[in-house]
Amino acid sequence: MAVVWLDDVRADDLDLVGGKGASLGELTGAGLPVPPGFVVTASTYRAFIEDAGIDDELFAAVEVDHEDSAALQAAHETAHDLIMETPMPDDVREEILDAYRSVGEGDSFVAVRSSATAEDLPDASFAGQQETFLNITEEDLLDRVKECWASLFSERAIYYRNRKGFPHDKVDIAVVVQQMVDAEKSGVMFTRHPSTGKKEIIIEAAWGLGEAVVSGTVSPDNYVVSRETGEVETATIADKKTMCVRDEETGETVMRDVPNDHRHERVLTDDEVSRLLELGELVEDHYESPQDVEWAVYDGEVYMLQSRPITTIAEGDDGEEGESDSGSSRAAATGDDVLIRGLGASPGIASGRARIVTKLDHLDQVAEGDIIVTEMTMPDMVPAMKRAAGIVTDEGGMTSHAAIVSRELGVPAVVGTGDGTKTLEDGEIITIDGDKGTIREGEEPEEKQRQPVEEARPKTPVKPMTATEVKVNVSIPEAAERAAATGADGVGLLRIEHMVLTLGKTPERFIEQNGERAYVDEIVSGVREAAEEFYPRPVRVRTLDAPTDEFRQLEGGENEPREHNPMLGYRGIRRGLDNPSVFRLELQAFRRLFDMGYDNLEVMFPLVNDAEDVLRAKEHMREAGIDPEKREWGVMIETPAAALCIEELADAGIDFASFGTNDLTQYTLAVDRNNEHVADIYDELHPAVLKLIGDTIETCREVGVKTSICGQAGSKPKMVQFLVDKGVSSISANIDAVRDVQHEVKRVEQRLLLDSVR
């Protein structure tokens, strides 16, 4: 069967209908206002390429260096030609056309939308990676379906999958065909602030079809709506110059000038805002997570066109520690050096040379650390955006391509400036503030070009007193100041691999070119930044744990082994013990830091399996001049083997055992955490995972070994309750979740005390 109807689709049909199709089917089943339609299934696409015998050629064509723009373009062109020049089987053609004739009046305009099996996932949106076609009729329908299939191999899709580690041959694509909503007004709604996580509704609205808003072609109105009162707290009315509409004569989607009396007119009425707020509450409650919703209004009715998870909010972040920067914050920016203002769409401050990009071939001029200034970004710009220190656009709002991709890449962005490409000069030094939405002349001191510390500082000054320590995870040393501002009891996990990967070379290649001393200096510099910021609070540093596919992206990576599943391969302590020349340099860095007086450092070894691993690592510590009897050191519990062998690990002399729930879950449940096909059964709260954790804590308490958790699950209330009940020594949470976890720990501890005296 080539097609299925949205009425028959649900969220667990991801493999059949892709992320967009599954979401629309789920919304339809929940009784929400979704236009009717059907899905050309992902298995139909897979059968098409396999039966035609083009699958191997397709996947071989896209195995390229994703940082090489020319190679990306050639790969896309080859894949596109293969699909478009291959005839669609007659039975598939007829089934699609029969389904189309059942939509609406049988000759309706429809939207044809790609729906890949790896999109709209909780940890990766894949937003804008595949094609959408509007106002399509029967004449062009089949070609547009094939164009959607081919868009699975667009330059931006190849690039994004490579960065996210999704194998090309494991991703299929379905195609959603829905009756068009000839929208009078449309836009996007966030059920929480996409940068701060604050519990407020953010709505962006413009005249006509939503394509203009999503693409960033038009700067939309921006409404900030209180979730508590339903009142519009701020309404920023934009100058809406153009709109996307259907041409009455040709039926094609075209851009038209907005009539003068509508350009500065507010798009949404109070009743429409209230209806959107109502729908936003319903969809967030249904999915139990913040949502990014596309909507449209036609003839007084609000329709939902799509809903996906917001992937840019850290887990546990409710935004209470920071203020919203949308709407009125732009007007609040002051200063004689402010050149231009826009909407702060991706937080952070960055300085660099402005590079005016008006054509795609200008992208080669964008160097590392430049600020891209363009009318609006397009998906093909992503490789250059990754090189850039910041993004500025003339058009677009918080839901434009520039805003979404910048937030995901962690690049500051200011959008909707109006005339940034004309006001700013190519090559001039500017500083952009992605929080305030300002572009200033000159360069900001380097130490200020980071996430504002005050956003992480608790608003409530009194720290909850708990017996269980609450620490913080720090991914990169640059985040140490912000992490320390949370008032955490220390760092539960600082990763060395981020310091190494930023060198752009494998450790072996860097050492070959720069010497052993330089490599040790790099590690010392990074770790010292966090150790100094937290002193005397403890900082637990994990030795190198990067899989081979990450190293393969670096200079020298051609010497890395090619592994079918790098998560199960040459990484963690096994790599260190197998390659002791590099491992010993890491330990030498620790010894130097101890000699410098940083006695708050603790050494942690990743991915151990048994006591033999620990004893060998312990011997390397001694050889590096670190006394394991005087320094705090321990291991990650990431494999069932380590959990089951905890007594032997304790006998080997460890001081602590720290649970890495991401790996422990995937190894216990046989679920690759990067595989979208099994994402729905990945559960850190699975009884088997909890039993391994609980039994390990119990054994460690008996033998005097401290226990902690540093995986993402440590920020989840249910996991916090379980751990405190079991008697864990410390919990390490994400930066934005520290205060919430502190309060949750205190609540559970108080309950345990009350239960003991009742």
TrEMBL record:
Q: Which domain of life is it from?
A: Archaea
One GO biological process term? gluconeogenesis
Q: Where is the composition biased (Acidic residues)?
A: 315-324
Q: Which SUPFAM superfamilies match?
A: Glutathione synthetase ATP-binding domain-like, Phosphoenolpyruvate/pyruvate domain, Phosphohistidine domain
Question: What PROSITE patterns is this protein classified in?
Answer: PEP_ENZYMES_PHOS_SITE (PS00370)
Question: Pfam families annotated for this entry?
Answer: PEP-utilizers, PEP-utilizers_C, PPDK_N
Occurrences of domain PEP-utilising enzyme mobile (ranges): 367-437
Q: Which reaction does it catalyse?
A: pyruvate + ATP + H2O = phosphoenolpyruvate + AMP + phosphate + 2 H(+)
Identify the EC number(s).
Answer: 2.7.9.2
Q: In which pathway does it act?
A: Carbohydrate biosynthesis; gluconeogenesis
- Region Disordered, residue ranges: 313-333, 436-462
Which residue numbers delimit the PEP-utilising enzyme C-terminal domain?
A: 459-749
A single MF term (Gene Ontology): metal ion binding
Say if the entry is tagged with keyword Magnesium.
Answer: yes
The segment(s) forming the Pyruvate phosphate dikinase AMP/ATP-binding domain are 15-320
Where in the sequence does UniProt note compositional bias of the Basic and acidic residues kind?
436-458
| Keywords carried by this UniProt record | ATP-binding, Kinase, Magnesium, Metal-binding, Nucleotide-binding, Transferase
Hydrolase listed as a keyword: no
Cofactor(s) recorded in Swiss-Prot or TrEMBL: Mg(2+)
Q: What functional role does this protein have?
A: Catalyzes the phosphorylation of pyruvate to phosphoenolpyruvate.
Provide the protein name.
Phosphoenolpyruvate synthase
State the species of origin. Answer: Haloferax marisrubri
